[in-house]
Design brief:
The protein is mainly α. It has one domain. The longest helix has 39 residues.
Length: 331
């Protein structure tokens, strides 16, 4: 028996808050200062996922692992990797709205276009999609404004102060020279890839009709573990020095907390998608959590200020309006 609309909505709202909050753990200065590579850090996230899965098993969930769930596990590993890179390159305030908008578009195409979930109004759907795309473009423009102001501030500072030899700056013991740095020209693509893969992670659940959402969450976590460990093994073969840099004192607790929060959000999404809300509504409600992430980025990390912040909030409101249209009037 599928979950009711009320249960699905409560689960979707839970996933919304968790989706906007989990990545804050990676953004913490204590984690960023270690220069830990995202692939290594993702193992800490995996531990958090498995802890939640263990609680679900103790609560009565079945332990299964299907090839279809492996697809979902691979997608979530890729999405996690690019999300961590995106936050390191762009910050929470810019990265989250972009990948949430992309994930909303992706899941809506899957739900309405591929799975044939009912549409109440094609016009409202088109309007909502245009708002989501327009808001995402606004976020990109906001980032340009912030980059321009940062560059000006940097130039002003160089005029007032002598140059500092970056080579003399202290680095954490054992830290590698780079932790997956991405050229600035490609940084904008990171949250888009995150959204494309993240917006598709619940698709395999559609084909596993014999599993409850909780059973699928356990299967999903196991598939995630296998894919993450395979990725780590390949990474260790190519970059052994970075693969040995784990920084457990600084990264273990935030990473495991990241995984627990994210997996709780995943379970909420799975329950919501199995309810009458469907994938096309459950995923957009989840992705509205980017406003939670923006609040963390502004209040906790001070990532954006001034005109860039005003433009970003306005763009976020446009994205949120599009998500609201898709969630309330598109079905």
């Amino acid at each position: 028996m599928p979950p009711s609309v009320v249960v699905g909505l409560a689960a979707a709202l839970t996933s919304c808050v968790c989706n906007g909050s989990s990545v804050v753990c990676w953004r913490l200065r204590r984690v960023q200062d270690t220069k830990i590579h995202p692939i290594v850090y993702s193992i800490y996230i995996l531990i958090g996922h498995l802890l939640v899965a263990l609680l679900l098993v103790l609560a009565g969930a079945r332990v299964t692992l299907s090839p279809v769930a492996m697809v979902g596990g691979a997608l979530i590993v890729v999405s996690c990797y690019f999300a961590l890179l995106a936050v390191s390159s762009l910050g929470v305030v810019v990265a989250e709205p972009m990948w949430c908008a992309t994930a909303t578009l992706t899941s809506f195409v899957w739900g309405k276009g591929v799975f044939g979930e009912p549409v109440r109004s094609v016009g409202w759907c088109v309007g909502g999609l245009l708002l989501v795309v327009g808001g995402m473009l606004g976020v990109i423009v906001s980032r340009r404004i912030a980059d321009g102001r940062a560059a000006s501030a940097c130039l002003d500072k160089r005029e007032r102060e002598p140059l500092v030899d970056k080579a003399s700056a202290p680095k954490p013991a054992g830290a590698p020279e780079s932790a997956g740095a991405v050229p600035s020209q490609l940084a904008t693509l990171l949250p888009i890839v995150t959204g494309l893969t993240g917006g598709s992670t619940l698709v395999p659940q559609h084909y596993l009709t014999d599993l409850t959402p909780i059973d699928y969450a356990v299967s999903f976590a196991l598939a995630n573990a296998i894919c993450a460990l395979l990725l780590l093994g390949g990474f260790a073969a190519v970059q052994p020095a970075q693969a040995r840099h784990w920084a457990p004192a600084a990264c273990a607790l935030p990473g495991i907390a990241h995984g627990v929060i994210w997996e709780v959000g995943n379970v909420g999404s799975m329950v919501a998608a199995a309810s009458p809300l469907g994938l096309a509504l459950a995923q957009p409600i989840r992705e509205a959590g980017f406003f939670v992430g923006m609040a963390w980025g502004v209040c906790l990390f001070g990532e954006v200020r001034g005109a860039a912040l005003a433009a970003l909030i306005a763009s976020g409101c446009v994205v949120l309006s599009g998500i609201a249209l898709l969630a309330s009037l598109g079905s």
